[in-house]
Amino acid sequence: xxxxxxxxxxxxxxxxxxxxxxxxxxxxxxxxxxxxxxxxxxxxxxxxxxxxxxxxxxxxxxxxxxxxxxxxxxxxxxxxxxxxxxxxxxxxxxxxxxxxxxxxxxxxxxxxxxxxxxxxxxxxxxxxxxxxxxxxxxxxxxxxxxxxxxxxxxxxxxxx
Length: 160
Description:
This protein is mostly helical. The chain has helices at 3-27, 47-55, 59-92, 101-132, 138-152. It is built from 5 helices and no strands. It is elongated, with a radius of gyration of 21 Å.
């Protein structure tokens, strides 16, 4: 077996493994914590109300927080649009008879870089929320920080 054939088989094998792992992540729904362990927003409420309630923001802090939310929302939308476009480009390569692995790798790297930017944006967003807190609210912020991954992290698949 020549080297090119071996590399092609290895690349296809790795691609199949990655797709399999992606399928497992998409199909696996993380267990929900029992009621009472972690207060979630009331019906009709959302992350904004949860944070305002948990951190006991006053009216001035709420106004600051609204500005932080607006900035975060705009940047998040830009990154999600870019991610959607990159994924469209990636999967459109499947229409080609011969797939350019260099293009595939470059697009996957761009998708990873975009996800890194999303995570950095979210982390910076919570740092800004922390900066809005008064010293007597920091303990509440630290409690919230312990739950951020469960409250705002990736969700499982949508119910069918």
